[in-house]
Amino acid sequence: MNEPLPIREGVEIPASDLSYSFSRSGGPGGQHVNTTDTRVRLKFTLRQCSALPQGVKTRLRAAHPGWITTDGALVLTADGYRSRHRNIEDVRERLAKAIRAVWTPPKRRKKTRPSRGSVRRRLDGKKRRGAVKKGRSRVRED
């Protein structure tokens, strides 16, 4: 728990930027669940973290706006397991996975135009289809 969170080769979030709090988790578990605090709440001070580039922080905020609080901290919770230790591992891995997903900036879209031949083929197909439909119409007698 007091270990840095590895993101990729040479990049890790210091343990001082991560804070954990625990509470009682709901769901099944019998009497044991009423006595142990297994839900984990991870608070990551995104603004103060110097390990991540500014672009990654911006993309992370944009990708997960529901995780960001008004003071700029990222908050994740985990209560899927009955063990506090497994919930800590789960929430740490989810944070690392989210950061890895936004690490590389998206490629800029390059504008393209259809080729002259593809435009011609598309229009020829439309004309053929229109001729077929026109051939189905009732013949007029003048």
Unreliable segments (pLDDT under 50, ≥5 consecutive)?
none
Number of DSSP helical runs: 3
Question: SSE order in H/E notation?
Answer: EEEEHEHH
CATH class of the domain at 5-101: Alpha Beta
The helix/strand class is: alpha+beta
Strand order across the largest sheet = 3-4-5
- Please give the alpha-carbon distance between the first and last residues: 91 Å
Beta-strand residue fraction: 15-25%
Which CATH architecture of the domain at 5-101 would you pick?
A: 2-Layer Sandwich
Any idea what the radius of gyration is? 28 Å
For this structure, the CATH topology of the domain at 5-101 is Double Stranded RNA Binding Domain
Q: What is the molecular shape?
A: elongated
Helix residue percentage? 25-40%
Outline the biggest β-sheet.
3 strands, antiparallel
Mean pLDDT value:
86
Quick one: how many beta strands? Answer: 5
SSE topology sketch:
Blueprint: E1 5-8, E2 11-13, E3 18-23, E4 39-45, H1 54-63, E5 73-78, H2 84-101, H3 116-135
Antiparallel strand pairs: 1-2, 3-4, 4-5
Q: What report would you give on this structure?
A:
This protein has helices at about 55-65, 85-100, 115-135, and strands at about 5-10, 10-15, 20-25, 40-45, 75-80. It is an alpha+beta fold. The chain has a domain at about 5-100: Double Stranded RNA Binding Domain (2-Layer Sandwich), CATH 3.30.160.20. The strands form 2 sheets. Strands 3-4-5 form a 3-stranded antiparallel β-sheet, with helices on one face. Strands 1-2 form a two-stranded antiparallel ribbon. A hairpin with a 2-residue loop joins strand 1 and strand 2 (about 10-15). The radius of gyration is 28 Å and the shape is elongated. The model has no long low-confidence stretch (mean pLDDT about 85).
